[in-house]
């Protein structure tokens, strides 16, 4: 079945550092891909998405490009802030609109 | 503002009691809603798909008699954890597909602690 694999955390960075969180997917087709963010004690919020190959999702300085050739959707941000500290989930959506989540990556940004 | 309202946000109960969690779609009608479970420091696992006016569809390994789902209207789905035990303690989250079904909106979650 479909699956999503993302790098394990925690990832600890200093403020203004560059962020990459890797995500790869395995699917029979080409699912829509998402990054969700979960702040402490809260539910999930959609951060960005891409629905087809070569699409680039972007929001709040975060970007991810849907790479068909490498089946990847890595999350990047050029300069992280303390307020970006959260857990980030990569997810793929199958043909029945079910979301399949990666294991989550905790990001801690230090001042 | 919030698109999905989930209540309660936190509940503590005694072992053997039942707990009901509500998920309301505030902005649009939802014939389908999803229920997820998240263990500490782990990912979300889909438990079931709630279908308005019909039976819920449960994922493999999820006990339907343990986790009762009712989707009585186009804006409300409920999850009842029956005869809760400490191993049922977890974070339960619902989601609602938007107008464009490939976007889901999540509730804030319910943290269940069974003593």
Defining key terms:
heterodimer; A: mainly beta; six-stranded mixed sheet; four-stranded antiparallel sheet; 51% strand; globular; B: 115 residues; mainly beta; 11 strands; 0% helix; 53% strand
Descriptive notes:
The complex is a heterodimer of chains A (about 110) and B (about 120). Chain A is built from no helices and twelve strands. Chain A is globular. Helix content of chain B is about 0%, strand content about 55%. Chains A and B meet through strand 6 and strand 11 of A and strand 5, strand 9 and strand 10 of B.
Kindly state the number of beta strands of chain A.
12
Structural class of chain B: mainly beta
Percent of residues in helices of chain B comes to under 10%
Percentage beta strand of chain B: over 45%
Structural class by secondary-structure content of chain A: mainly beta
Stretches of chain A where pLDDT is under 50 for at least 5 consecutive residues are none
Question: What share of the residues of chain A lie within helices?
Answer: under 10%
Compact summary:
Chain A is 0% helix and 51% strand.
Secondary structure: elements and pairs:
The complex is a heterodimer of chains A (111) and B (115).
Chain A: E1 3-6, E2 11-14, E3 19-21, E4 23-26, E5 32-38, E6 44-50, E7 56-59, E8 62-65, E9 75-77, E10 86-93, E11 99-101, E12 105-110
Chain B: E1 4-7, E2 10-13, E3 19-25, E4 32-38, E5 44-51, E6 57-58, E7 67-73, E8 76-81, E9 90-97, E10 104-106, E11 110-114
């Amino acid at each position: 079945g479909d699956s999503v694999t993302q790098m394990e955390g925690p990832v600890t960075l200093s403020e203004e550092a560059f962020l990459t969180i890797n995500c790869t997917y395995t699917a029979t087709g080409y699912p829509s891909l998402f990054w969700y963010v979960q702040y402490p004690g809260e539910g999930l919020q959609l951060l960005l998405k891409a629905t087809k190959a070569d699409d680039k999702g972007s929001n709040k300085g975060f970007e991810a490009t849907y790479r068909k050739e490498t089946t990847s959707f890595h999350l990047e941000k050029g300069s992280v802030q303390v307020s970006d500290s959260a857990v980030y989930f990569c997810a793929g959506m199958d043909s029945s609109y079910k979301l399949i989540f990666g294991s989550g990556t905790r990001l801690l940004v230090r001042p | 503002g919030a698109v999905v309202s989930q209540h309660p946000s936190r509940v503590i109960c005694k072992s053997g009691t039942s707990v009901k969690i509500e998920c309301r779609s505030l902005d649009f009608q939802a014939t389908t809603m999803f229920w997820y479970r998240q263990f500490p420091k782990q990912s979300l696992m889909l438990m079931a798909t709630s279908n308005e006016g019909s039976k819920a569809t449960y994922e493999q390994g999820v006990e339907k008699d343990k986790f009762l789902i009712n989707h009585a209207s186009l804006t409300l789905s409920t999850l009842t954890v029956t005869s809760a035990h400490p191993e049922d303690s977890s974070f339960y989250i619902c989601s609602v597909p938007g107008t464009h079904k490939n976007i889901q909106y999540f509730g804030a979650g319910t943290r269940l602690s069974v003593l």
